Structure formats: structure tokens, C-alpha cells
Amino acid sequence: MNHCIPMTLHEAAEALASGALTSRQLCESLLERTRAVEHKVRAYIHLDEPAILQAADEADQRRKRGQAKGRFDGVPIGVKANMSVNGQPCTCASKILEGYTSLYDATVVARLRQAGFIFFGRCNQDEFAMGSSTEHSAVQQTANPWDLERVPGGSSGGSAAAVAAGEALAALGSDTGGSIRQPAGFCGVVGMKPTYGRVSRYGLVAFASSLDQIGPITKDVRDAAILMDLISGQDPKDSTSLPLQPDACEAALAEADLTGLRIGMPTEYYQGEGLDPEVRTAIEAAAKRYQDLGAELVEISLPHSKYAVATYYIIATAEASTNLARFDGIRYGYRSKEGEAENLLETYRQSRADGFGDEVKRRIILGTYVLSSGYYDAYYLRAQKVRTLIRQDFNKAFEQCDVILGPVTPTPAFKAGEITDPLQMYLADIYTISANLAGICGLSMPCAFTRAGLPVGMQLLGPALGEKTILQAAYAFEKDSPCQGKTPEIS
Predict the structure, then answer these.
(1) Tens digits of per-residue pLDDT, 317-328?
(2) Single pTM value for the model
(3) Residue ranges of the chain with pLDDT lower than 70?
(4) Which residues are identified as catalytic?
(5) In 3-state terms, what secondary structure has residue 249?
(6) Which contacts of 224-229 are long-range, i.e. CB under 8 A and separated by 24 or more positions?
(7) pLDDT of residue 339
(8) How far apart are CA 466 and CA 234, in angstroms?
């Protein structure tokens, strides 16, 4: 039944509706594929086969009775390990939450459950979503399916690798500074970061609350639009969710016409060193293809983008320092063993020292520093002012263009262990961070392959609530794209 593996969500839904396939057959096929390659890819940190097959049988019974929950009843989907799925582990790929089981569903999970989706497994990630390569997981290191010696990106590396390797039809990820788009770019799949507030964060373990967003990682643009329709919408449990209904993104794809679409080309993205020549060539070729399809290229400027990385790593670490203070070894999670700590303060210190990984501790320390007395105004307050300038840059740019085109990352996927300098690793997100600071939407999709056979991702950025526009632009590009349908060969 390996013919099921390349299926998209919409193809699986059609096969289930026609009776050509049962949910059990689909899930068994996916499990078979996972058994064959998971020991090399290591995309999942939790997989409950009996529960998956039981859910599949229940979906099949509902269809037989004519009581299917909907179009996607019985379709499996992966979920990043920092989202609550009732009864399943929610460890954020950390030691400090090892053994913790969710007691409720995140809002996005509840909405997908209501639509009949089966939660196939919990995908690996950088611990607490802090990283750009999934090398900082406390559980295992995920490999890039296109080259097992390379990283899949991060922090949603497990989600992207599972989709690329055929171990998932689609998956949910979270994006704080590029953590959906960057691994999607490295793994040659589609990843979307929604406008801040478009998708509820309830049930997502917080990293940086003003930056985090949940979004889809899929095999094609249509699937991304489908999941956006299903997970979007106001949520009374999340005070930052916008009072909006889902945007009918899938239906809007039928209107995808690039004639007259203005595509912004930021001069800052192509200046200076650091952009790999093959990535530059791929993005320039993508821009030319858009011109051939009827779009107009417009030169724009994002003058404050050069400050985005510094701004992000002040704001994000400050919020992380506050959010992760709850993991103290007292209420839940890992606690240092009796006898190791002489008093309560030492229990806190030892539990956090042992329970958190190096990258998480690095960010907590930095965040605590920039929030400390005497440094708050010099760092955190100033970073918030620069964040406003970055948002204003995008507002001005979108007066001149409808979408912005650029690279997702400066280079294709790098080898595991190749980057040891944290500052160099942070620069892997240089093109994605600005969208989170500005609260706008963005999408990553493959546009070319390097001579070494690695995917090159291009990024489309849209204004706040501009999801339909960038999905339409991506969908039009995807048609007849040489990248579409290509899958890695995992030996």
C-alpha cells in the first residue's frame, strides 16, 4: 500500500470519500513507511500505533454509517511536541517535561479533532522551540530526508522532516522567528506562518508570546490553505486571537491570477555577503518566472531589516525568560533528586540546571539580563522601538507591492555539527525573523534544487491578514513547477 505515501490531504480525503481507501489502510501504509525510514530520519518522539489504528477503525465505522465528521474524517496528521493533545505526551523535546502528559487539547488540535483528523505522532523539535536545526532536542537529532548528514532546520524540524520523508501527509508546527518556514525550506515542503492572532495559541507551550504562531507544514499549497481554513478563527481562550472567521483560503485558490500582481524585491535581501550564490540564482529565477506569469516586479526597501536579528534575540529571550520561569521543579516536570539540594532555592536552581539544555539556558540567561534593573531601557525598551520601525517598513512596502519575494534562508541545509557558534546559527533565520516582529504572514515553498540535490526555499511575505494573497501567489507558481511532486530517496 505504499502508493498512499505521496498523498496530499485533499487526495487522501477524495480517496476516503470514494471508498478507494479506508482510514485503516491509509494509517497502516503510513506506519509501514515510518517503520522503514524512521530509524534514519528520527522525526517522531512519540508514536502510539494501537491508538492510531483504533482511531482509524472508528473513522471507518462512522463513514459506513454515513456519519463522517467531515471531509477529512480518518486522515492522519503529525503535531509538533509543544502542542497539547489530550492523553499524549507534551514534552517540548525537553528533559524538564519528560513524562508530562497533556490533560486537554490545544484549540488547533480540538478543531482538527472535530473535523475527524487522527493525530499520528508527536514530532521532534528543538527544545522549547529554541533552535534553528533540531540539534537542540533533548531526545534525539532529526535528519534531513534529502541528505541524512544534514539538519532539517528548526525548531519544527521533526514536522518538516516527517512530511518530506513520507511519514506524514501534513503536520502542525510553530513559528516564533521562522521555525515553520525555515525547516520547510530546508526540507523542500510548504510551510506557512499566519498573521499574529489569526490562529489561537491556546495549548501551545509558550516560548515568546508576542511572536509565536501555529501553522501548517504540507506537501503542497492547497493543503496549507485547507489547514488554514480549519485552524483559523477567534478563540475566547486566547486573548490575542483576532475577532475574525476563517478566510476561505482553499476556495480563493480558484481565483489565483498573477496578472498585475506587484511583487516586492527588497534591496537589503540581496546586498552584502552571506547569501549563497545558488540560493540567489534560484530566487532570481523565481522572480523571472513570476514575471512570465504576468506579475510585476517592484524594487522596495526594508531599511531596518538589518537590525531584525538583534531585536528578535532581545525580545524573544526576554519573553522566554518570563515564560519558562514556571518550570521550577516544584509544580510539575523534572525535579532534582532528594539530597542534591539543601533548600528551596537550591532545588529551583538544580532542577533548572539539570532539566534545561544549553541553548535554553543560554536564552533564559540573556533574557533575564536584558530585563534586569539598569538594562531594561537600554535593551528591551529600545528593541521594542526598533520592532515598531520594522513594522512601519513593511507597512510602507505594502503600499508599493502586494507580496514580497525573497529567500527563506541564506544557504541550503547545512551539515549536522557544522555550525557551533550560536551567533552564526541565529543568522540562519535572518530572512524570516522580521515577519514575526511585524506580525505579518509568510509562506515558504520549494523553488529549485542545488547541484547537490538540496531544496532551495523561497519566501512570500504578505501584509497582516494577507494569507489569501500569498497562498494564491504560491499556488500559481506551484503549477507546473519542476519542484512539485519531488520526494527524497532515503536509502
Answers:
(1) 999 999 999 998
(2) 0.97
(3) 1-5, 338-340, 491
(4) 80, 155, 179
(5) helix
(6) 224/190, 224/191, 224/192, 224/249, 224/443, 224/471, 224/474, 225/249, 225/250, 225/252, 225/253, 225/471, 225/475, 226/9, 226/10, 226/72, 226/250, 227/9, 227/170, 227/172, 228/192, 228/194, 228/467, 228/471
(7) 60
(8) 17
